Structure formats: structure tokens, C-alpha cells
TrEMBL record:
<keyword id="KW-0378">Hydrolase</keyword>
<dbReference type="InterPro" id="IPR000120">
    <property type="entry name" value="Amidase"/>
</dbReference>
<dbReference type="GO" id="GO:0070291">
    <property type="term" value="P:N-acylethanolamine metabolic process"/>
</dbReference>
<dbReference type="InterPro" id="IPR023631">
    <property type="entry name" value="Amidase_dom"/>
</dbReference>
<dbReference type="GO" id="GO:0047412">
    <property type="term" value="F:N-(long-chain-acyl)ethanolamine deacylase activity"/>
</dbReference>
<feature type="domain" description="Amidase">
    <location>
        <begin position="168"/>
        <end position="581"/>
    </location>
</feature>
<comment type="similarity">
    <text>Belongs to the amidase family.</text>
</comment>
<dbReference type="InterPro" id="IPR020556">
    <property type="entry name" value="Amidase_CS"/>
</dbReference>
<dbReference type="GO" id="GO:0016020">
    <property type="term" value="C:membrane"/>
</dbReference>
<dbReference type="Pfam" id="PF01425">
    <property type="entry name" value="Amidase"/>
</dbReference>
<protein>
    <submittedName>
        <fullName>Fatty acid amide hydrolase</fullName>
    </submittedName>
</protein>
<dbReference type="InterPro" id="IPR036928">
    <property type="entry name" value="AS_sf"/>
</dbReference>
Length: 608
């Protein structure tokens, strides 16, 4: 008796009475033999449900989902009100050719000065080669895609021979790369490259189809039950622009983790410190870009899986609005929280790749009614002036809830510089019900994932999954249909709170993660690990963009005292990718610290 609670309607919540409560996840950290034993227990018929029920009670999940009256009606996928058009942008045609969109996006970039990049000045601070640098080198005949391909192949083979294994790619065919590079080289010799992306090396996460490679989702068996017959829609758009698709990048198995641990193929290491995780689940895509081997990679993001590894590896990761990019041909294409998006070394490269892959599916154009996609016009004088009117929302207590003050200090410095240099105004905001948001997200993504996995698990494939995936599935199985509906009621409440905030601010700013790259316990390499405290730190600021379908980008801004990268996250209004990309470009240009060369770095353009 007395457990029942009744929530006020979202519109009646008194924001002045909202108190920030730091997250306190109650769950064991396990690796090795104890972890194996734990998984056996939670998969056992009676004791397993008792353990899961205890963990859910300890973390107030049952209290939220089962004992609380939530007055809102369910929102089963993000629903957005009509949005005002963005200013100082160039519209892109969803139904147009990808290469034409990329050409338009290229014209929106600041003027390119090749002399500053090809002077041979070895004293200049480290910088990544941009897509325009490769294009200039190819057009000027300094090198060819085929020459770059040979450097790429030898570097990947070096990675593949590491002990213990730490592969960037888990499906890789050197001859396939050489064939694509030779075709690109020929196009440059004939003077007719397909686009600025022609000859640019890109990796594809292993849950996105890229023919002829299998899509395993980094399992050992998915390719046995699901044949890849063609590229995913997003991949086919890159291929039509001439991109060289190098293979399938490593990932946390089935995307069910935030560290990038993978006991099946080996765990990808952070290029800045090989004893640390990359973050996940798009571990291979972030690491292959951060190590200089690819200009871009495609990842998926259902719970920070693009933004977390981008932040931890010191690169740029974009999660677009839910429904902005066609998900056909991905393992997570039927969910309500996931998107496909680019990971690149620079903001301008993110803009170019985003222009290539964007375009909603016909179903989402009807149900979501997206605004016309656009990119910021960074070439115009008015672009920097439009930054002056930006209002940036900051929830200070949340912003400062980080594992190390290095993170909040660096991100705070960025806000100060944006104010000084561009006149951006920081507005204090309050975001209620963060715990409820996390609960609604885990129930949503977990139930949707279980729905897609159940047929194969019932067919006997479950025991062939890693122990941390099996731990997650055991939790997901404990959710009921009523839990799922309760989570969708929460989704509508939390959408209301955020849309109200966006009446006062243009962009919500947070650190991307609550900690920098965590160390890899040696015992976790063989059997994986479960560490929900680390997951909580990594996902602290991530969830709103997934549960509510909002666009968000992570931009590197500096390093902690150990030299590990720190990212800042910009969360925008629905369909307002151009606004967050404009601010991201300004942060990169005027607010971020000079970049440090990662310990594991390959210059495949010049071959140095």
C-alpha cells in the first residue's frame, strides 16, 4: 500500500521547484569468471527475474513505470510541431542527386587556401587533412587515390596483426579497395571526378549494409541469417559520389554498449591512448577517422553511439533529426531512437558527408513532415553575424555533473569565447525529469532491440552473443508491454519540456560525455564487462537527442590533464541541423584548443 504516485501534467510542473539529482546507478561492475557466472544467473528462469527485479527497484525503474500515474498520452515515435525556417542557409533537394547536394554544400564552405596546407611547414600545429585537401592533391596530381590506397592497406594490415587483436575493420578486402581506387584514379586522369567526395576513403559501421561485405553487427553469426544483397540507401548515396568504401568498421556487438568492447573480434583502441576505450558503439568508425586513415565514416546513434566515441577520440560526430536520413539497409532501421550519421575529423567534412547521405524515406516524409534539409552558408558575411542572435541554453548543475572538472571547465571556456567573439548569449535553463528520460529511453531502445532479436534468440543464437549483450537482453526481457507504453507517455512529457525550452533558446549546450576515455580492464578483453557506472557517465548528456529525435553534434574542444579529448555537444530544434553545424564550425575555428596528434596516427595523403 502507498506506493502509487501521481504526476502533474507536464504543463503544470513548477520549474522553480525542480531540484537536480545526480545519477546514482546501482549495479555491479563485473568482468572475467564472475561476469560469466552472473550471466548464467540472470538467464536462469526464476532467479534471473528476481535479480532483474531487484536491480530495477534499486534504480527506481519499477517505481517510475509501474507505480506512477503518467497523465500524458503515449508518443510512440518523435512528433514535431512545424518549425520556423533557418536563416543564412542553402536548401538542399532531398530527391536530387547526392553529388549535386554535395556540390551545393561545397559552395557554402569558406574559401579554400591550399598554400597554407602544402607549404611543408613542419612547425605548424597538428591538423587533420580535410576532404578538400585530398581533392586538391588529386586534382593537382600530387598523388592518386591508388597511391593513397596502398598506404591505407598497409596501415590496416598492421592494425590487423596486433596482439591482442584490436581491429579497426572486421570486414576488409584489399582488392575491393584497390578496384575502387583505380576507378577513381582513372576518373581524375580523365578530368571528370564525380564530386568532391571522389577518392575519399570512408568506413561503414558493421550494422549498415555495404555490398559485398556481410553485416554482422560485430556478432559471430548475423551474416548466417541475414544476407546483404545491396548497399544501404545512405551508403549508395556515398558510392554515387565516388567515395572509396574501405570495409566494415568494428563496433560494440549489436550496438549494445557505450565502450566499444568486443570480445568476438577484439576491442578497438583509442588512438590517443591504446590502453583506453574509444567509446561506443561506433568504436571502429571513430578510431579509423581519429587515426587519419579515413576522412569519414558512417555510424549509427541510438544512445549516443556516434557522439560518445567522437568525443572520446577527438573527432566530430553528427546525429541528425530522427527521420532525416533513410535507415533502409541497417540492422537498427525499425527503431524510434536510432539514426545513421557521419563521423569526420572536421566540421566542414561533416557538412559535405551529411549533404550526401541526407534524405528521408517516403514513409517518414508523410508522418514526420520534415523541413527542407539545408546547410549553413559559411561563405557569406552574414553567417558570422547570425551567430550574434543565438541564445544558448545551459543547465548549470547538470553541465557541471562530470567525472573531472577538466570537462566542465573546457566547455565553459567555449561558452565564454562564443560570447566574447560572436556575441552569443548563454541562458540558464532547467530540464526536469532527467531520470524519467533515461528510464523511458532504456525501455524504448531495449524493447525495440529485443523485438528485432527475438526470432534469432528463440532459434538458438542467443548463447553465441557476448556476455554484455546477453546481460542487456536479460534486462530488456524484464520489461512488459505496460512498461513500454508508460515509457512512451514519459516521452511525450519530456518532449513538452524540451519544446518549451526551445521557445527561450536556440541550442542546448552540454559536455558530450561526463568522463573522458575510460581504461580498458585487461580482464575485459576476453569476455567483456558490465559497468553501468561508466555507461552512466558516458551517456549523461546523450539521451534527449535519441528519445526525442533532436539533432545533436559533438565537437572536440580540448583535452584533459591526461591528454584525452573532450567534446562539447550542441542539441538543436527539430530539423535544425544547419544551426548546430554553424555553431560547431565557429567553435572549431575560434574556440577549440590546438589539436594534438594522436599516438596512433597515419598520414596516408603525404605518406609521412
Amino acid at each position: 500500500m502507498g506506493k502509487k504516485q501521481v504526476m502533474l501534467p507536464a504543463s503544470e510542473v513548477d520549474l522553480t521547484a525542480v531540484k537536480y539529482i545526480p545519477e546514482n546507478i546501482q549495479a555491479p561492475h563485473l568482468t572475467g569468471a564472475w561476469f560469466k557466472f552472473f550471466v548464467k544467473l540472470i538467464e536462469a528462469p526464476v532467479i534471473g527475474s528476481l535479480i532483474m527485479n531487484h536491480l530495477k527497484n534499486e534504480n527506481k525503474i519499477n517505481e517510475m513505470l509501474r507505480y506512477t500515474v503518467i497523465p500524458e498520452i503515449p508518443m510512440f515515435k518523435p512528433e514535431f510541431p512545424p518549425q520556423e525556417p533557418e536563416l543564412e542557409v542553402v536548401d538542399l533537394e532531398e530527391d536530387g542527386k547526392p553529388e549535386e547536394r554535395v556540390e551545393l554544400a561545397l559552395k557554402c564552405l569558406p574559401e579554400y587556401d591550399p598554400s597554407s596546407n602544402w607549404s611543408g611547414d613542419s612547425t605548424a600545429s597538428f591538423r587533420y587533412w580535410k576532404i578538400r585537401d585530398y581533392a586538391y592533391a588529386y586534382r593537382s596530381k600530387f598523388t592518386t587515390p591508388s597511391m593513397v590506397a596502398e598506404r591505407f592497406i598497409s596501415a590496416i594490415e598492421e592494425f590487423n596483426n596486433k596482439k591482442p587483436p584490436a581491429p579497426l575493420l572486421i570486414s576488409f578486402d584489399p582488392d575491393e579497395v584497390r578496384k575502387q581506387a583505380a576507378a577513381s584514379t582513372q576518373r581524375f586522369e580523365q578530368g571528370n571526378p564525380l564530386s568532391i567526395l571522389d577518392g575519399i576513403f570512408m568506413a561503414i559501421k558493421d550494422d549498415i549494409d555495404c555490398y559485398p561485405h556481410p553485416s554482422k553487427g560485430a556478432t559471430t553469426w548475423m551474416h548466417e541469417v541475414r544476407e546483404v544483397k545491396k548497399d544501404a540507401v545512405s551508403v549508395s548515396r556515398l558510392r554515387s559520389c565516388g567515395a572509396i568504401l574501405v570495409g566494415k568498421a568494428n563496433m560494440h556487438e549489436l550496438g549494445m554498449g557505450t565502450t566499444g568492447n568486443n570480445a568476438n573480434y577484439g576491442t578497438t583502441r583509442n588512438p590517443h591512448d591504446p590502453d583506453r576505450y574509444t567509446g561506443g558503439s561506433s568504436s571502429g568508425p571513430a578510431a579509423i577517422v581519429a587515426s587519419g586513415l579515413c576522412s569519414a565514416a558512417l555510424g549509427t546513434d541510438g544512445g549516443g553511439s556516434i557522439r560518445i566515441p567522437s568525443s572520446l577520440c577527438g573527432v566530430v560526430g553528427l546525429k541528425s533529426t530522427y527521420g532525416r536520413i533513410d535507415m533502409e539497409g541497417s540492422l537498427c532501421g525499425a527503431g524510434t531512437v536510432e539514426v545513421i550519421g557521419p563521423i569526420t575529423a572536421t566540421v566542414e567534412d561533416t557538412i559535405l558527408v551529411y549533404a550526401a547521405i541526407l534524405g528521408s524515406s517516403p514513409v517518414y516524409r508523410i508522418s514526420l513532415r520534415p523541413n527542407l534539409p539545408c546547410v549553413p552558408d559559411l561563405s557569406s558575411q552574414q553567417s558570422s553575424q547570425s551567430l550574434e542572435s543565438l541564445r544558448l541554453g545551459k543547465y548549470t548543475e547538470w553541465f557541471n555533473d562530470v567525472f573531472s572538472v577538466d570537462i566542465s571547465d573546457k566547455c565553459e571556456n567555449v561558452l565564454s569565447r562564443l560570447s566574447e567573439k560572436h556575441g552569443c548569449k548563454t541562458v540558464e535553463i532547467v530540464i526536469p525529469e532527467l531520470h524519467e528520460m533515461r528510464t523511458a529511453h532504456i525501455v524504448s531502445i531495449g524493447s525495440e532491440c529485443l523485438c528485432s532479436m527475438n526470432p534469432d534468440c528463440e532459434d538458438g543464437k542467443g548463447p553465441r552473443l557476448t556476455y554484455d549483450t546477453r546481460t542487456n537482453l536479460a534486462l530488456f526481457r524484464s520489461f512488459t508491454a505496460a512498461d513500454y507504453v508508460a515509457a512512451q507517455r514519459l516521452r511525450r512529457r519530456i518532449m513538452y519540456f524540451h519544446l518549451e525550452i526551445f521557445k527561450k533558446v536556440d541550442i542546448i549546450v552540454t559536455p558530450t560525455t561526463g568522463m573522458t576515455a575510460p581504461r580498458i580492464p585487461p580482464s575485459a578483453l576476453n569476455v567483456g564487462e558490465t559497468d553501468l557506472q561508466v555507461s552512466g557517465n558516458l551517456m549523461r548528456f546523450i539521451i534527449a537527442a535519441n528519445l526525442l529525435g533532436l539533432p545533436a553534434v559533438s565537437v572536440p574542444v580540448g583535452y584533459d590533464k591526461q591528454g584525452l579529448p573532450i567534446g562539447i555537444q550542441l542539441i538543436g530544434r527539430p530539423w535544425c541541423e544547419a544551426s548546430i553545424l554553424r555553431l560547431a564550425a565557429a567553435i572549431e575555428e575560434t574556440c577549440a584548443e590546438p589539436k594534438k596528434k594522436p599516438l596512433q596516427f597515419h598520414d596516408i595523403l603525404k605518406g609521412n
